Amino acid sequence: MKLTELSLRHFRNYEALDVSFGPGVNVLLGENAQGKTNLLEAIYVLALARSHRTSNDRELINWQADNAQVLGRVEKAAGTTPLELDLSKHGKRAKVNHLEQGKLSNYVGQLNVILFAPEDLALVKGSPQGRRRFMDMEFGQMSHKYLYNLTQYRAILRQRNKYLKELGTKKQSDMVLLDVLSDQLAAYGAEIVVSRLTLLNQLEQWARGIHEEISQHRETLRFKYATSLPEATLTDVDTVYQALMNQYSERREKELYQRTTLVGPHRDDLKFIVNDKDVSAFGSQGQQRTTALSVKLAEIDLMQDQTGEYPVLLLDDVLSELDDMRQTHLLTAIQDKVQTFLTTTSLSGVAQKLIHQPKILTISDGHIAVDDEV
Ligand SMILES: Nc1ncnc2c1ncn2[C@@H]1O[C@H](COP(=O)(O)OP(=O)(O)OP(=O)(O)O)[C@@H](O)[C@H]1O
Questions:
Q1: What is the CA(328)–ligand 1 centre distance, in A?
Q2: Would you say the CB of residue 13 lies under 6 angstroms from ligand 1?
Q3: Structural domain harbouring 104
Q4: Protein residue closest via CA to atom 11 of ligand 1
Q5: 301: domain CATH number?
Q6: Per-residue pLDDT at 335
Q7: pLDDT the model gives residue 242
Q8: Rounded average pLDDT per 10-residue block, the chain, 374 residues
Q9: Is 33 in the pocket of ligand 1 (CB under 6 A)?
Q10: Which atom of ligand 1 has the smallest separation from the CA of 345?
Q11: CA 330 – CA 189 distance, rounded (Å)
Q12: For residue 181, what pLDDT is reported?
């Protein structure tokens, strides 16, 4: 899929912008603090109805305005779809084909994006929370079912944790509601765990091939889903459900004491194993970067496999973080198949690695000048 046009009204430092993009590489060129990342963020927001930088939508609206608009046209094999997102202090409204969507989960998935930012290089070394977020964002875009289960799971988890906090002051008979909440949480939790295992299994196949190539066949990458559930139970939804229920009852005392839910997909993690060693603990910085890059590139293939369309790739200032060999690998892998937006403060080093002429958009103080000549 391609994002052919984008219009912004009062979004961050863009007062009014109407721009069209090329089908290949679009270079967002500019000095610091001119609006390069804001533009990538607008594309991300158009895709996911939320920002990757802030959970406060107010920050997305220009300081002088009360509301913001992000509009885009997405081209797929099946046709062109106009998307529209209105942000105001009262909330957000999302439209597909000019029709307002009651649920944001029906909106998400029209435009699929993969964002690669310097923080993603920390995917391997960073916190388990970052890896869970990675799974949820990517799988949520690919699968409506995943997004739905995740939304339900989070809502029940909030309720259950609130209830566990209140239970300290209540009587034993109140355990009935806790049992009901445990049952619902285990049902959605089991769906999430099984979807993650299935999608990770596929992602691993792609990532392994890419990692092998970048490491010149010296390294083999493997994923391991880290969970408190016994390995033997990770087979199907019913078995995982039962395993979660068992753990809730085994840990009831501890959960009541700690007043929070201690098991489930919100506590799980993903480990990356290179040549049989956990790369977050034992890998060099280079191995960790290669792993992160392989995983990101594998996502492109997985998304194509799941949705029938290649996603749009957003590269926020990552080239400067990669060495020459990894830069070449990245730019070679994306050419010809993926529409890409990359931010940079300088063209040197980028243009030579691209076979086709990129579209250059020079950004200065929330304005864009288009120049097709490199
Ligand atoms: N809500 C807002 N309203 C108006 N301006 C904003 C808003 N939010 C951020 N800005 C401005 O946007 C600019 C930052 O833009 P952006 O983050 O896109 O920088 P960049 O071009 O990617 O730079 P760098 O290369 O340093 O990352 C800053 O000047 C900031 O003051």
A1: 29
A2: yes
A3: 1-112+309-374
A4: 13
A5: 1.20.1050.90
A6: 78
A7: 98
A8: 98 97 95 96 96 94 97 97 96 96 90 90 91 92 92 97 83 79 98 98 96 92 97 97 98 93 98 95 90 93 92 90 85 86 88 83 95 58
A9: yes
A10: 25
A11: 35
A12: 97
Q: Is residue 10 within 6 Å of ligand 1 at its C-beta?
A: no
The rounded Å distance from CA 178 to ligand 1 centre is 46
Does 280 share its domain with 345? Answer: no
Binding-site residue set for ATP:
30-37
For tokens 């209540």, what's the residue?
170
Residues 152 and 75 in one domain: no
- Out of 276, 307, 338, pick the residue that ends a domain: 307
Q: Whose Cα sits closest to atom 7 in ligand 1? A: 12
Ligand 1 pocket member 12 (CB < 6 A): yes
Whole-number pLDDT of residue 174: 74
Q: Spell out the residues 6+ positions from residue 62 whose beta carbon is closer than 8 angstroms to its own.
A: 10, 11, 12, 13, 14, 15, 68
Q: Is 34 in the pocket of ligand 1 (CB under 6 A)?
A: yes
Atom of ligand 1 nearest to the CA of 363: 21
One-letter-per-residue 3-state SS of 3-71:
EEEEEEEEECCEEEEEEECCCCEEEEECCCCCCHHHHHHHHHHHHHCCCCCCCCHHHHECCCCCEEEEE
Amino acid 185: pLDDT: 98
